[in-house]
Design goal:
homotetramer, alpha/beta, Rossmann fold, five-stranded mixed beta sheet, 20% strand, globular, disordered C terminus
Chain lengths: 367, 367, 367, 367
């Protein structure tokens, strides 16, 4: 059950993405926030620092990102609705706890406002933590639902969705935004979704008058741990069946599709407009969930296309999932920029033209 | 330049994998070891605790895995040959520092003796950190060479190779072993490779009488960081060209290939023997480098096969890289166990038989 | 300005000392609590964990005692009324931050529910952190007001006094309780003092529309640091003049005075009753502030006495301050138990008798 | 058994105090050093960083002062001869571990090169950690022998003495130096004492072929902990009997004695020369051990004096121990500077003259 909540008025308000995501979490019923300052995510923490106490909820600036995520783990174990946020290096410090929460089936929303890496890198926007988000951040066989907004309004909505998914499936869930999404200002209609509150039956609320509950990721007997893993894998299959989200634009007659998410999708949209003006039949396939990846939809689309162009703010990471989905049914090319640089629409048009020409050539392969 | 060193005699000595890898690192000229105890990797740390001081070298049991890898980073920056080891949860704590070392181009060898996950999991053997090792452990666009031994003798050799690769390309390098590889005892011929020592020109050795050097992953200007990323990507391409290693067994006439590494490959070998006895033409494709993955060799092999069966001690991770490589040229099936359980040869024979039957069916797809 | 607050009724309620101190802090207007569990202080943290969120205030179980006190420091810098509590080993971890707060002139109340030491020691009650509390916990020339309650009702009152002193003088202030004070249950009349709230002019509340403020303990120029130290010393002199508290019982005709605080004073009271029955004219001098120590009052009393007997749950610590005050004007003897053992009244009567006999002897010295 | 060792020659070498103390520790047979950089102690760590590996011994720059002292604790438990050093704020972080080592009876030498406090303070020289060193750094009833050198040559000798005392009594031992002692350069005759090595019977060396040993500070039964405390107190009494050290200068005919240690004693010596020229009969009483404090010697001296002047680089800390020892037998006055400022000889002569005049007045008291 979801309630739409308008804060003060429904006239659009100019907000930074970081602020809008923070307020969306508050309106969704976030009970506790834990974080540690890092650019370009700082305004999110600042917003929570001011607003959470106003709402009588918990805000803690922890000793480090490691402390923040483990406080989040602890709070989540009590049934609290928890948000943690950081940017790339800080997210890396959370790998162990994310694996623990996946194993312990604890819901929590983690927002990564990505910056250029590796290492300290730069504070410019980036999408170079895609692999980390959807593949192998922590150890062990687990998956994390990953939502990737492409506008601030969508980010507001996906924050609520992230809490819904986290709680529906008892899983840590990630919202993957890049620095542009965090720093840019856009008009946001202040209508938020408020999520119903159901105290989960597994939460550690103090065992007064009932048997004690246990939340843990430890299963010392291999048979027991395998049973637990089968349960987790079944859950991940359900998520893959039910929670895939993507958006298509101008795909009906497209001969080339750009696959892009987040800020890259916004650039792609402008590039597609220009390419269409130049007579190229181009459309946009925009994954909204990065895991589960919209593989089936893309696999179904691929045979109708002359080629696919993947655009990322990275050296090429989602392109691997595109190739996996397409499985040779269409050539897949890539254009990316790194280090905090956003590709320009002009660059993407050029890449589209090269893709068009290559697709014309008979010998093109699938790599 | 490599020197072969025989320790006391060349008669085989019975050693645990953890001990053999530790001694191999010492013989390879490891200057400093940093770690923190965790099962099933503990004997490696114990061996180093005893042997490194005997050799007048540095052993530190750090405050945590986080401290250990960062001490490793610092020591590597001085040009020291550094080994760090842990098991799954401890490796997760090292994600940030691995990204920093990749960005700073610091050589270091990290051994992961994998156990069942996610979270605390069990202390049984596992291969469920494959994704973490080859994809997205830390943030940012970087890659880490990953070597996967399938016998203790091979582990001894690959420890030296890992140092060679780390230093040749100035990159952190991983040796991915599972708990069986760490705990099992096998006869090891105590012949080790000793690596030549060349003080690297970039090492922070104190700037007496020369200009100061800088080792860093920070590049605040996006253009500069992109230039740095291009340099890294070019290096990764070179590694992909030159450092791929794999081994094939009985593939000449094989209609089905098992793809497996580490302990799974050993189980597969026994299963293949039995399947051959039952008339199934089965061979083994064993990746030794997991990144760079032997994609080209596998892509070339795929069209000759009726099907590929991937066997892992996981819920299915390397299978994704196999599918990426095969790109639809052959059906790819999977058999895995999780939670610290090793598949039996009998199970694998059954899986082979199912694969054989499925491959016979006309409608089989590539997923 | 202080308001008396009755919670629900004024009939006595049976409470543990830890609980009563916690509630007293809440009623006094404590905005934020930071702590980490340790026996015998655990119920204080548990009470705060439950009650602070009920009041819409901040409760954080930090990563460690080190994190807790530094969070306290940060919160205090914003003008919040902050309580931190722990027991002996945890208090030791707070030495650096206490010195920083003294140097930065930040008010904060720290409760130490002492247990037997040194090291891990036992979880039994103790007074063996007297030296730490009143002398040299952290580095540098600073003093900390220390209040020592001897009943739960007094503890309730002194918690409010501790906040008053902390804020009046901008200084961290300590409430020193032993494990008996924390664990024992006594009827508490639920009347609490609520302290007026004045936002301090130095607090870091965000520099909107006013010049930025600075809170720091760093003064790099020695002249500046000395000026700062003179200011601190002048403040400590003022506290010594104005804030000394002690209580005397049956001292009018006493020939021997027991000097004791906290639980030791309660035992002494019973022993004095018994000794009086046996004809010994004995009274009790009970310091309530340990720093500033009631030296003048004791110095004035000493010449009238045949001897002083100091009773502590320690190997002898406050006895040093007694000797300093008495400066040879009366013999000072000592009786103490350690390790979590509370002296019995019988033991103290025996010690009184020995003191009486020694004082009769003409040769007795001042040590 | 002690061996004198001359390094290369016996001609004086110009060394900083920090360097000389470091080399003295190495020559005394220090096996392991743990530290973290802080001014004005940095050269000590730097010297160890270079020299310990040359000697094939252990040097670790830890993650923090907390990690350093706990590594020291661990190494000491194996029977290693361990040095840890820091400056005031870093020493505060070591309070808990010092209490643990006292409780566990582990020998270790800790050097504090004091700087101005409280808090971050300044990096100028200071003696304001006297209380911390001799009274209440950590929790519980324990004492730490504290040696205070007044010249670099004496520091060299006292480093060896500190190891001797630490090992003879199984106790952490402190060497208390101020920033002047650490930073000043003086000619040092490179003759060092090398201490005999006896593997202690309690050391945790691996329980091969013998029953396991235990090193701990935990004694859960109060009776057992009290027995342990009695043992510790008996040991402290022995140290008080046997290890007191002090030096007197020109005390034979002195009517006023300056009591000062470390750098303050050096200033006092110059002031005494000048005061003697002006006809004042002044001498120097210089404690070398601060705990045990030379109370008996001072108590014996006091009645012969008109007054005592205590000079410290602090707001007045040792003066308390002087008053305790003197117990009213002589007036005790104080002159101190704080914040990194060293009193000048001129200031001290003025203070002496004021003392002289006050002592002439009939009404002077003992405070």
């Amino acid at each position: 059950m979801t309630t739409l909540t308008a804060r003060s008025s429904v006239r659009p308000v100019l907000m930074k993405g970081n602020e809008a995501m923070a307020e969306a979490a508050i309106q969704a019923g976030c009970d506790a926030y834990f974080g540690y300052p890092i650019t370009p995510q700082a305004e999110l923490l600042e917003w929570m620092a001011r607003r959470m106490p106003e709402e009588g909820r918990v805000f803690v600036q922890a000793e480090s990102e490691l402390a923040a995520i483990n406080m989040g783990l602890g709070a989540a174990a009590t049934g609290a609705r928890v948000l943690v946020s950081s940017s790339s290096p800080g997210i890396s410090l959370m790998a162990e706890a994310m694996s623990y929460m996946a194993g312990s089936e604890l819901p929590l929303v983690l927002i990564n406002v990505m910056r250029g890496g590796p290492g300290l890198g730069s504070i410019g926007p980036s999408q170079s933590d895609y692999f980390q988000a959807v593949k192998g951040h922590g150890h062990g066989d687990y998956r994390v639902p990953v939502l990737a907004p492409s506008s601030i309004a969508e980010a507001v909505d996906l924050v609520a969705s992230a809490f819904e998914i986290a709680e529906r499936y008892r899983t840590p869930t990630m919202l993957l935004a890049d620095g542009v999404m965090g720093q840019a200002m856009e008009p946001v209609v202040p209508v938020y979704r408020t999520l119903a509150r159901v105290t989960p039956g597994w939460a550690l609320t103090g065992a007064d008058g009932r048997p004690a509950r246990v939340v843990r990721s430890l299963h010392l007997l291999p048979e027991e741990l395998e049973r637990h893993n089968r349960h987790l894998q079944a859950k991940y299959s359900t998520i893959e069946e039910r929670e895939v989200r993507w958006a298509g634009e101008r795909l009906e007659d497209a001969e080339i599709a750009i696959v892009a998410y987040g800020t890259a999708a916004r650039v792609a949209r402008t590039a597609i407009d220009r390419a269409r003006e130049q007579g190229l039949a181009v459309g946009l396939f925009r994954p909204i969930t990065l895991w589960p990846f919209p593989s089936e939809a893309l696999a179904a689309l691929a045979p109708k296309l002359r080629a696919i162009l993947v655009v990322e703010l990275s050296a090429g990471q989602m392109v691997e999932d595109v190739r996996l989905a397409v499985a040779g049914r269409s050539p897949v090319l890539f254009h990316g920029r790194t280090g905090g640089i956003v590709p320009t629409p002009g660059e993407v048009v050029d890449a589209l033209r090269r893709t068009w020409d290559l697709a014309d050539a008979p010998q093109i392969g699938a790599t």
